[in-house]
Amino acid sequence: MGDIEGATVLAKALKGQGIEYVFGIVGIPVVEVAMAMQAVGLKYIGMRNEQAASYAASAIGYLTGRPAVCLTVSGPGMIHAIAGMANAMENCWPLIVIGGSSEESQGSTGAFQEFPQVEAARMYTKYAARPSSVERIPFYVEKAVRMSIYGRPGVCYIDIPGNFVMSKVEEKNVRYIPPCPPPPRICAPDDMIKKAVDLIMYAEKPLVIIGKGAGYAQCEAEVEKLVVGSKLPFLPTPMGKGLLPDEHPLCVAPARSKALQDADVILLLGGRLNWILHFGAPPRFRADVKIIQVNTCFSSLTLSRKGP
């Protein structure tokens, strides 16, 4: 092994974690990064604005459950991408944003488009960091990919100083991390499952609400078996559509308001009691309705049924 540039280390680390798509705009200091990404086989799509790039990359995460990358230049470029970062975080879409930044030796000197990018990203990400060295870039890439898809999916930001891009290191000192495995599947305790089954069995007007989390879990077959086998009426949320066809005879979407108001037991699959579902509160829901929530993220189960 010989020397390798930081841009290539970054590109190979992304490739090794299964990243396929990169959306961005080239400029100082990420021109060589985009070239290295294409050299290792990543699909680079040039955009005209970082905001559009961040939206496009987050759409890949929404559709596939795996993150794409938004690549930005320093300063204004990274700032423009914050719109897509905030949108992806609120919608639970995996996304990785990589921002070029000022050289380390020029910190706090008024460098070209110098901006505290890591600090700015933290409000809109699950994880934001600057690698401590070129050799450790793969560690940060793997952590960003893992955190973007584990638990509640979201956004991760990696800051790449300009001096890292063209710096050369001995490749033997670079440790590429094995691909991040899919998120582990978790299951509720048996006694809680039994209680949920009993509630549904004895409900007078049960209702299944299908959220986008069910799509992330790729449980179309299981949802169909539950709904059809038990003859349970179901209602897809706007982003939960597609697991079962809208024209299915058990779909109550045309009578959405009445279905929500009448249901005495609701099985909420991969959805949140936010504004989409009127916070689960009266008058859109019965005051005595029992809601069984199924979600991969505990924090999503703690939303109050009280309105704003």
Automatic annotation (TrEMBL):
It holds the Pfam family TPP_enzyme_M. Residues 193-301 form the Thiamine pyrophosphate enzyme central domain. One of its GO terms (cellular component) is peroxisome. GO terms for molecular function: lyase activity; magnesium ion binding; thiamine pyrophosphate binding. Keywords: Lyase, Magnesium, Metal-binding, Thiamine pyrophosphate. GO terms for biological process: fatty acid alpha-oxidation. Transmembrane segments: none annotated. Its cofactor is thiamine diphosphate. Residues 5-118 form the Thiamine pyrophosphate enzyme N-terminal TPP-binding domain. InterPro entries: DHS-like_NAD/FAD-binding_dom (IPR029035), HACL1-like (IPR045025), THDP-binding (IPR029061), Thiamin_PyroP_enz_cen_dom (IPR012000), Thiamin_PyroP_enz_TPP-bd_dom (IPR012001). CDD domains: TPP_PYR_POX_like. The keyword Lyase applies. It comes from the Eukaryota. PANTHER family: 2-HYDROXYACYL-COA LYASE (PTHR43710), 2-HYDROXYACYL-COA LYASE 1 (PTHR43710:SF2). This is 2-hydroxyacyl-CoA lyase 1.
